[in-house]
Amino acid sequence: MACSDRDWIFLNTTFNDLEIHFDDTLLRQARLFKTLAEYGSLSPCLSTFPNSGKRSDCDPALMSYFENIICSSSTLVDNAHYNPYRYLILPMALESEGLYHATLAIAANTLRLSDSRYRLPALEHHHRALSHLRELLTHDTWGEKELDEMLGLVLMLCWFDVIIPNSEFSNRHTNESQISDNSRPSWVTHLSGFQDLIRTRQERPGRSLHSQELSGFFNRYFAFHLVLARTAFRVDTPSYKLPISPDSLVESPDTIDPYMGFSQSLLLLINQVTELAWSKDDNQSDISPSTVHRLKRNLEDIQQRLPNGQIDPTTECASIAEANRLGALLLLHETCSPKTASASKSGLPAFDPEEKNRFVDKILNLILEKKANMMRTAVLPLWPLFLAGCCARGDEERVTVLRLFEELNGIRRFGNIAPAKEVVEMVWRQRDLLAEDEGKRQRGDSQPRKDPLRGARFAWEHAMVMLGDWKLSLT
């Protein structure tokens, strides 16, 4: 021991010593602070919190994790122009009791992907955030501040429900009920409520600059999540219309949005592909082959520009945008495949299957080449990887897909990686069983059976139904 100014300092005390001298409660608390200490301290501007309500000793550390880790990697460019979580949502958390708890819920929920001890703090903060939202919804009238606060809360609650609550998901022995809970459709319910609030907000446009910037981000968030949700499963949205307006654009429509990982122009083209996929159910039968071919040319010719400050075309920003463009072409091929209900019933033109296989290879090779940089941010190319995985035919491609999913899941910060992998594997199992049945039928060993994938829009849609009617988030 050493002494200085009457303060005793123990030089040889280790964390294991605490296990001997403290009870389990203190030990768990010590471990909690030991883990959170790794993420640094709060910025000076985040040293104050809403005054009402009971506070936990670990709240500042959770807020620090949200600021230093989650916000830092939430977009491809971290500055006031491109990072809405740090510069729009986080300041609101210092004024709003509900957003304060929602922010801490996100931090704790992300941490529990690798440590189940954060489960209770995550649920407690989630409950308080949800209670605050319910209280706001009971008000007779809403001002600008209340509407912004409610939109922010619904956005954060949607984000919370996308994160897996069980860090053991990737274990192949995880039981089915746990997996079903991890892909529950509650985030889709929040997304629907988000749309209703956006409509109300559009009727009462904000006057402050902060409110206008929030409105633009909220519109982009909703459009991004809704369009990619519609590529995975049917979403019933009354009077469906994307809320993309000039004030929601970060720059030009062809500029890569650092939050989405691709441009607004590409998002609109992906939305057109989903319109083709669901056209028959929506009683739209006037789609001509020329319209489909024009859409394909637009996807092939689109030029996505780097955002300001990102001038190196070899960065992960350009690679992620290109992977998503290839994913959109792959989705169009799958939509027009003769085996999908949307194509077989509406006369959509079929494309060369070999071209689809080339898109799969390009996506996988691009992610393999740039994965080290891509994995540094939350803007992962999960959507194109998922599509490529579902369309992969050969064993070599499947091995590559599994390896990429395992590496992404190893980050332990993104809750939708493991369920996406599970859906892909279910698609493979169904496809292999069909191939086996076809072989038996050709040999005369069995009677032909109905193809269970023929009635589905996509093979992955059918797989999610079989897994318990999952609503998978690919954003």
UniProtKB/TrEMBL annotation:
Keywords recorded for this protein, A-Z: Nucleus
Matches recorded under Pfam families: Fungal_trans_2 (PF11951)
GO terms of molecular function: DNA-binding transcription factor activity; transcription cis-regulatory region binding
Cellular component GO terms held in the UniProt record: nucleus
Location(s), subcellular: Nucleus
Example GO BP: positive regulation of transcription by RNA polymerase II
Signal sequence bounds: none
Superkingdom, taxonomy of origin: Eukaryota
This protein's name: Fungal-specific transcription factor domain-containing protein
